[in-house]
Amino acid sequence: MNNNSVTVKALRYDTGEPVVVTIADGCIRSVETIPDASRRPLAELWIGPAFFDVQINGALGKAFGSPNVTFEDIAEIVAECRRHGITRLCPTLITDSEANLKAALRRLSRAIAEDRGLEAALPGIHLEGPYISPLDGPRGAHPRMHVRRPDWEEFQRLQDAADGRIWLVTLAPELEGAIRLIERLTASGVVVALGHTAASGMQIRDAVAAGARLSTHLGNGCAAMLPRHENPIWEQLAEDRLWASLIADGHHLPPAVLRCLLRCKTPLRTLLTCDASVLAGLPPGRYRVWEQELEIVPEGKIVVAGTPYLAGSWVFTDHCVRLAMQLGGATLKEAVDMAAIRPRQLLGLSISWLEVGATADLILFRFDEQGLPHIVETFVAGKSYPAAEGIETARENL
Ligand SMILES: [Zn+2]
């Protein structure tokens, strides 16, 4: 056995079978199913595919879209995500001026190009806005002054600044020119998501016909009061060609709504996202973020200070997996699949995780007394990162 190889004994998240997995040179070298069920000395250690989150804005006070973000900040956000089982993510930029977006995209793209570790961690950028609803409610915490109409020429300039790394765009299909933009984005290989929208049923159906494939954080980015029948949530729920991302952080969606959305979309068409804010992971208190005063309240949510309006999430994807199980009624396999497999499928990436030759992007976890999983260790291309929760690493090296 060579020096950089690691052997792990754990139970598969999907079948419960005990396996011995050998990892070397970043890849899975062997997988052996332990035939004798009595040989389960590590019955509590489980193994699964690492998470992929399509919407992370930042963490620990650093944001991908900040005008002052440094390469070190970007690496720090990625490192924090790894401690929560997330090995890949779409760095997300929200509505801003063209000049600021271009500057942020250039910086991100340069950082990614210069560091192979970052390139693997940040395969594609999510542009959330600026072509979203200007209305209070659907617009959420996006700045009104920078919301604008779809503009293919501008998008191309942004995509150039990003060196073609924008993979996902969230927009509102009711805006003038949106359907044509969806067609062009789709033809250029960008995945289009609907979000921050007050669209009619017809506009949503037109968007899907034009190529839209995802509802971004369905149930949020929407008017607080809606007509009971004619509203964008029903229409998106009823449209099976649209997958949905859900923020299962315990604050964005009440448990009954989370359960209903999951039943309609099913785990086969649902992605879990944390939509982590720039303030994710920081202690409670008031923070000034660019021109906005935000507050982390003790129960673990981030609001625009003095208002009930949520401004992104304080937790990471591992917490959303637990809540999808606890509040949403998902099984372990369903919850992990929604956080690890579905995002890769949406973006056309490989979903093989425990096959010989596959990149070793893995999580090891244990269950707490409530039967909810907690990350112990994350492998990023075979390299080990301990969890954020301080649970001692108990992997057995053979
Ligand atoms: Zn949003």
Helical residue percent band: 25-40%
Whole-number count of domains = 2
Cofactors, ions and other ligands in the entry: zinc ion
- Strand percentage lies at 25-35%
| Name of the top-level CATH class of the largest domain | Alpha Beta
How many β-strand stretches? 20
The class by helix and strand makeup works out as alpha/beta
And the CATH topology of the largest domain? TIM Barrel
Low-confidence stretches: 390-398
Report the C-alpha radius of gyration, rounded: 21 Å
Question: Biggest sheet: strands side by side, in what order?
Answer: 5-8-9-10-11-12-13-14
Largest sheet: 8 strands, parallel
Mean pLDDT: 93
Order of helices and strands: EEEEEEEHEHHEHEHEHEHEHEEEEHHEEE
The CATH superfamily title of the largest domain: Metal-dependent hydrolases
Assign the CATH architecture of the largest domain.
Alpha-Beta Barrel
Distance between the termini: 10 Å
Helices, by number, come to 10
State the shape. Answer: globular
